[in-house]
Amino acid sequence: MAATEELVGKLKEFAEKQDFGGAFALVREHQAELDKGLTGEGIRDELKKTTKDRLLLSFLDAAGFGEKPLDKSLFIVEKLRGFTPGTLVLNETWGVGKVKRADDFYRKITVDFKMKRGHQFTYAAAVDLLERAPEDHVLVLREADRAAYDALFEKKGEFIKAVLKSYGDMPATKLESVCVSTGMVKAANWKKYWDAARAELRADKLVEIPAKRADPIRLRASAENYGDSWLTAFSHETDPKLILASAREFVEEGRFKTASDAEKAVVGERLAFAITASRNVDDALYARLACMLTKLGFEKPPAAEMRDYLWDRRRFVKSAADLPSREVGDMIRFIATDADAKERVYKAIPALCFTAVSEIVSQFGDDPACRRAVGDLLRSEAAPATLVTLVVGKYEKFAGWEELPPLVTILSHAVALGEGRQNGEILRMQNIVRRLFGDEKWLSKMFAALNPADQVLFFERFQASIAWDPSTHHTTVVRMTHIVPELASHVVKVEKKKDYARVTSFRAYATKKAEYLKLINEDMPENVRKIEFAKGFGDLSENAEYQYAKDEQRQLMQKQSLMQADLEAVKAGDFSDATTDEVMPGVTVVISTPEGEKTYHVLGEWDNDIEKGIISSKTRLAQNMLGKKVGDQFELPGAEGTVKLATVKEIRALSEDVREWMKLPPGMQI
Q1: Which pTM value belongs to this model?
Q2: Is residue 613 a part of any domain in this protein?
Q3: Which of 520, 542, 570 lies at the terminal end of a domain, its last residue?
Q4: Does some domain include residue 196?
Q5: Is residue 301 part of a domain?
Q6: Is the CB of residue 132 less than 8 Å from the CB of residue 89?
Q7: In degrees, to the nearest 5, what angle opens at C-alpha 92 toward C-alphas 84 and 85?
Q8: What are the 10-residue block averages of pLDDT along the chain, 670 residues in total?
Q9: Both 209 and 119 in a single domain?
Q10: Burial class (CB in 10 A: 0-12, 13-18, 19+), 41
């Protein structure tokens, strides 16, 4: 306590001198002692006595003394003190900016960014989102010396190193985000720029580029010479990923070939340790380590034991999906060492990723068992999307495979793959297939490989597909008739979708009108009061409250205009003229789905009650059903996944319960 009293006495001396800097330094140095004897608020009050600077006083009040740990509050004050006008700061979204002013009244820091002038941060947001820009930061260089920055930008590898020095180690995806979001590289140019930079960086001993995009690119302090110090550090490494990366570099640098038996033993021991550590933790890493151990000739753990682990629970399937593409083939070769193992791999094709399927066909395409397995899978009703995509994309390579079904069968699978919404690996395959169908050269090859009868079958199958994007579907049909003019006689004329009057129930119309009246009678007048109140704060060009209120006014006026137009265009009705010969607004529809029957009441534009099965005619589900008759199929929207088709089973008039729901509620008016 005596020590605390002595420190408080020194603070009073600083107060007499009005020396805030000295007082703050004293508190920083002796915060542990002061924290024991004074409350956070007490320390704040002592500091406030040392200055009359309103800005510093506002920093102290905003720092949360007593609410936050003392060191956190002191950190906040110190950081805010650094945001003086003219200081360059960094923000992850806006890049580099210059502090324009600090406002003690509104407690805001205003920063001029290149793409956002006068951007305001509350004190709390400034502490969280801004950092003082280091002088050697790449964005500071861009502001201070554009010519030097442009010269560095042309040296792609060096430029990326400068970005990594400025922002720290990061994965390639984050690197792209940083470079694009800050305007250093245009999004359209990134791939070309990064490919060139990566080629340069791979030869740079100071840069470590990982095999997986998710792992960070690292800068080393110095080039590795793989001497005794490296070997000692490596022998104590316990991170399996770092062990693999270090061993891979050791091998790629050619040092393993010339290493002594003792050095090789250290490498083998660490790799064996890493594979044990990755067991039941990271199967893809296990597979990579197993391949390297076998490739380098180490006998422990035994290769058979490592293969059994990957076979067990079909771990090799997930490993293939998680491995870098260039290493998938290594794992396939590692596990498929005999005829029985190959058969197991062939049977797993439906579950494997596209890269793995491509590797299997590439490596074992001469094996009759592989060809039979591929043929059987393509004859099945649900052919694997990966296999279908591979075969139709590179069909010329499969032309001699007698085991395959007719090409028209494979193309039918491809058409089905293009239907509906997908996710994950199947979505990737769908996108590839859709691009193929948009490629006239590819379509020409496919039609050339079909006999006239199969050309018609393929064409009619595509025409009958109901789930492709209508515009793409029409364009592709026309393209097919240009390639084979005889197909024009098989074009099915599609009736234009019927337009329905813009109607909604009395209930929904009254609800929408009530929202409109609240907007013009309450929300907009309240906004006018906010504007008038904000004018009292002074200069409108520097008045944040005024700007916010004017922005809100523009939004309200836009909303009012849209709602007024809707209320004039949509009419209230009871759907008394609806008939049940097809699905239209004002009918009840019973549909058959893979999960069973479902019933929906299709009403007007603004009608919706999920619990009662009432849906708006503007929903995607209703749009897919409109115009359909009993027995017709349509796409059933759902969560991301395989497309589902449903059938219209029954169309009937609305029930009395639904008609009662549609009526004008008591107390409301049109």
Answers
A1: 0.53
A2: yes
A3: 570
A4: yes
A5: no
A6: yes
A7: 10
A8: 74 87 87 79 88 91 89 90 89 83 90 84 89 84 87 91 88 88 86 90 79 78 58 82 85 79 87 91 93 90 93 93 90 93 94 93 93 92 90 88 90 81 78 90 92 91 76 87 90 68 92 91 88 69 72 88 90 90 93 89 92 91 89 75 76 92 84
A9: no
A10: exposed
